[in-house]
Design goal:
single chain; 423 residues; mainly alpha
Length: 423
Amino acid sequence: MGKILLYAYTLVFLYDIPKCYGLPVSPKFPLMILWAFCAIAPRLIRGRKILFGMPRSLLLFFLFTFGVSLYQYSLRGSLLSIECLLVYACFVNHFDSRRDEVLPYLKYVVGLLLFSCLWLIGSRVVGEPFSHLRESLYAGHVDRFEAGLFTIIERTGLTFNHFIMGYQIAAGMVLSLFLSFSSKGSARVLWISAVIIFSVGVIYAAQRSVLPAVVLPLLLSSAARRQARLFLGLIFCIISVVFVVKYHPLSDDDAVTIDTRLGDKEDPFARLSWQVAALSVIAQNPLGDILGNLDWERQSQDSGADFSLHEYRPQAVHNSYLGMALLYGWVGGALGGLALWRVCRVMIFPCFHRIRIGAEFDIAREICGLGLLACLVNGLFHNASFFTQEPSSWLLLCVAGAAATMAHRDRAPTANSSAQEEF
């Protein structure tokens, strides 16, 4: 039962399915509560300790955001912090007794990401019925967002906001690529086919951040394995697919694709000016926007932010980590930075350490850590991350955290234990 609830929750959460069919809330909330009961209640009945395993710095960050939300009378922010803590605990307790299910679950997540990517390609190439079905699915979001009507008519994949497609494609491509390395025969062909489909999705998602998000885990893993030819060859194959689709377009010439975005030379410099301005605004506002008096529009322009390409309408900073510091000030930014470092040290760095020394390593943990790295890199260029519960990032963080917790508990305490796995 717990496995079914986990898979159902993942589908609703990853696709950001809103309230529908007359429900007062999204179906993810009743699914989350039922799954939490199935994951935690059996341990209580058997008298076993409930596991948590979240890095302390990340726990402190969510407790801090919970307190800020209470101060601001923000019910949504308070519930988000509680939801993060509950879901993380559910993942740890669920997989602790089902350790052999981690890899199948990751394959299920890749399947959902692949289906969303295919939906994106179908929407851009064919149009209907993909666009109409998507509008019907996300209509429940319109009453919560002023720009909801504009957002749901976009030709994109299965997500409410189109920019989330960058996270989905980056995570899906990295996970598929490394799954192909650990597979043989027809399974390897399947995962390589998924990589090619995600490569086509890069074209139509038109998000440049996907490129560094995919390449960095490959290069780091290549350096750790000392098998540069294999990884550089695969990167060459992916780039080849991109250029083939570029010069043989499947849609009209006016469509916005990755090549048109890469051809825009002014936009990257404008976005860089926003991030430089954000650093200045953060320095001038130690409390961030906790008291509600941060004027991003005025202070960013005073600090040199260039919004001329957007008719001088202020834009978000397009860096989720700077955005966190703008919102929560110096204390929140410091806690977030420390949490980010601990997440990397506990969930990502051990992957490269074990690869480098040739030690036996859980393939599911390695794949999940590299997928999480891709999402973290993507967050450098967008306004979402696991701090804001971006679906792809958050699911991979929880799975990687569960795997790290199990490895930490199983490892015999020795004086020379790797500090990279300590919480």
